[in-house]
TrEMBL record:
<keyword id="KW-0489">Methyltransferase</keyword>
<dbReference type="GO" id="GO:0008173">
    <property type="term" value="F:RNA methyltransferase activity"/>
</dbReference>
<dbReference type="InterPro" id="IPR029026">
    <property type="entry name" value="tRNA_m1G_MTases_N"/>
</dbReference>
<dbReference type="InterPro" id="IPR029028">
    <property type="entry name" value="Alpha/beta_knot_MTases"/>
</dbReference>
<keyword id="KW-0808">Transferase</keyword>
<protein>
    <submittedName>
        <fullName>23S rRNA (Guanosine(2251)-2'-O)-methyltransferase RlmB</fullName>
    </submittedName>
</protein>
<dbReference type="GO" id="GO:0005829">
    <property type="term" value="C:cytosol"/>
</dbReference>
<dbReference type="GO" id="GO:0032259">
    <property type="term" value="P:methylation"/>
</dbReference>
<dbReference type="InterPro" id="IPR001537">
    <property type="entry name" value="SpoU_MeTrfase"/>
</dbReference>
<dbReference type="InterPro" id="IPR004441">
    <property type="entry name" value="rRNA_MeTrfase_TrmH"/>
</dbReference>
<dbReference type="InterPro" id="IPR029064">
    <property type="entry name" value="Ribosomal_eL30-like_sf"/>
</dbReference>
<dbReference type="InterPro" id="IPR013123">
    <property type="entry name" value="SpoU_subst-bd"/>
</dbReference>
<dbReference type="Pfam" id="PF00588">
    <property type="entry name" value="SpoU_methylase"/>
</dbReference>
<dbReference type="GO" id="GO:0006396">
    <property type="term" value="P:RNA processing"/>
</dbReference>
<dbReference type="Pfam" id="PF08032">
    <property type="entry name" value="SpoU_sub_bind"/>
</dbReference>
<dbReference type="GO" id="GO:0003723">
    <property type="term" value="F:RNA binding"/>
</dbReference>
<feature type="domain" description="RNA 2-O ribose methyltransferase substrate binding">
    <location>
        <begin position="6"/>
        <end position="80"/>
    </location>
</feature>
Amino acid sequence: MQNQTQIFGLRAIIEAINSGETIDKVFLQKGLRGELSTELESLLRKHAINSSYVPIEKLNRLTKNNHQGAVANISPIAFHNLEDLVMNVVESGKTPLFLLLDQLSDVRNFGAIIRTAECTGVNGIIIQKKGGAPINGDTIKTSAGAVFKVPICKVDHIKDAVFYMQASGIKVIAATEKTDALLYDLSFKEPCAIIMGSEGRGINPSTLKVVDEKAKLPLFGDIESLNVSVACGAFLYEVVRQRTAPLSR
């Protein structure tokens, strides 16, 4: 499966951005100079598009075409507006359930989480514009196509989404080991959003400071953490359990 629709060449990428294409990431040749490269770099900053500077050998591997020092991947999905999505869910009468992903780096973890989110009725997934795994062919395959069914939003920073959720009456819960509270001690029956952290760092400490509640999973083995997609599944199915049956306590 081809990862994404690919475009190459400075002017072509500039035109794609100006025409409103959803650009997932741009690879720029290190040391690139000239008016067009300056214009492209300015557009990338203006639209907060994820980009990285790479050796020319990397670009040559990405495409056999004349790339002129720039290759871009167009996202296979259109992203939703966070404010519109939250408003539509709240007004629908459903009990909102959102998932915030704080810079997950592994596309297969990302895809597995999207698949579980679709199965558990998550109303939307929010990711950060920069620093996270892209939505590419591996993501689509691992999600079993769920990436086309669950609305996904991009924000400048996950904290932006946290504050908006809270302002909309949605409780924000962080899945983190930095707490004494277990997952089963919390109620998920009211509107809520769950934050999952990245594979290595977890949730950004500045984000942890502004959430409403924190919870962790009990671990009885010697390994101190679960794979993030497995942990996310446990959290989401606890939400399902509570919302489909009375709390046991």
